[in-house]
Amino acid sequence: RSYEYIQTSEPKPGVGQVTLHRPKALNALCTPLITELNQALGEFNSSDSVSVIILTGSEKAFAAGADIKEMAPLTFSKAYTTSFIESWSQLATQVKKPIIAAVSGHALGGGCELAMMCDILYCTESANFGQPEIKLGTIPGAGGSQRLTRAVGKSKAMELILTGKSFSGVDAAQWGLAAKAFPSYEALMEGTMKTAETIAGYSKVAIIGAKEVVNKSQDLPLRDGVEYERRVFHGIFGSQDQKIGMKAFAEKKKAEWTHE
Ligand code: HXC
């Protein structure tokens, strides 16, 4: 399938990749781009051949934000009645398979927010993150105030969002927003693929269960979250792969997953 603003591929067994590709606008996230992204993610999500998804941009830009030129003339009533930006959250709410963001270059505003919606965030040391909306007379609108605050704490998030100052990939990794910052673009893409392949080597049932329970920690109080985890953990005893994985351990063999 061919898209206008993104590219898709399956670079390794079990790995689906979406590359944001709107180079002339540094991957500014216009509504048609998000529509294509949601289509591609939906297809990978229901594809038997994909276990994990990589979301990336170019070396220069993951995404320089929501499309400012599209937003400039928007009115309150238009934004409100069309639920402007709501469709962005499909990435965070509709995709059961883990998504790894590989961020190089600019990840600003909506670009930073999109990266933060992903399940694992990898970046280059020189990546340029930020929530600069305040400079445009507005505020983050795709979860930035919530996800950045959960990741780095209130005081730092408040400072970043109120000043609009950007921060580096080194900062992102130090603060725990990114799982890792790589020294170069090549190292980022290689490291991302390696992690994706590691994950794709496991049972899909466990992969999806693991993602589900970790994400619950962001929504539920601890006690409810622990209980939720236990229920899903119990449920996984109903899978073939739990039997296969534990039997293989006992027999010192490599597990051959059925994904059932
Ligand atoms: C629309 C954008 C854009 C954006 C860049 N472009 N960012 N178009 N929306 N967010 C376009 C430029 O207009 C320009 O088009 C081309 O991409 C190249 O950009 P330059 O500015 O010439 O590149 P450079 O000098 O290298 O500067 C890179 C940059 C700068 C620092 C990233 O482009 C920039 O500050 N962009 C805006 C970043 C931002 O404020 N993002 C937050 C947006 S608000 P032309 O046609 O002139 O060549 C937001 C709200 C989120 O995201 C809330 C809801 C999701």
UniProtKB/TrEMBL annotation:
<keyword id="KW-0456">Lyase</keyword>
<dbReference type="GO" id="GO:0005739">
    <property type="term" value="C:mitochondrion"/>
</dbReference>
<dbReference type="InterPro" id="IPR014748">
    <property type="entry name" value="Enoyl-CoA_hydra_C"/>
</dbReference>
<keyword id="KW-0276">Fatty acid metabolism</keyword>
<dbReference type="InterPro" id="IPR001753">
    <property type="entry name" value="Enoyl-CoA_hydra/iso"/>
</dbReference>
<dbReference type="InterPro" id="IPR029045">
    <property type="entry name" value="ClpP/crotonase-like_dom_sf"/>
</dbReference>
<dbReference type="InterPro" id="IPR018376">
    <property type="entry name" value="Enoyl-CoA_hyd/isom_CS"/>
</dbReference>
<dbReference type="Pfam" id="PF00378">
    <property type="entry name" value="ECH_1"/>
</dbReference>
<protein>
    <recommendedName>
        <fullName>Probable enoyl-CoA hydratase, mitochondrial</fullName>
        <ecNumber>4.2.1.17</ecNumber>
    </recommendedName>
</protein>
<dbReference type="GO" id="GO:0006635">
    <property type="term" value="P:fatty acid beta-oxidation"/>
</dbReference>
<keyword id="KW-0443">Lipid metabolism</keyword>
<dbReference type="GO" id="GO:0004300">
    <property type="term" value="F:enoyl-CoA hydratase activity"/>
</dbReference>
<comment type="similarity">
    <text>Belongs to the enoyl-CoA hydratase/isomerase family.</text>
</comment>
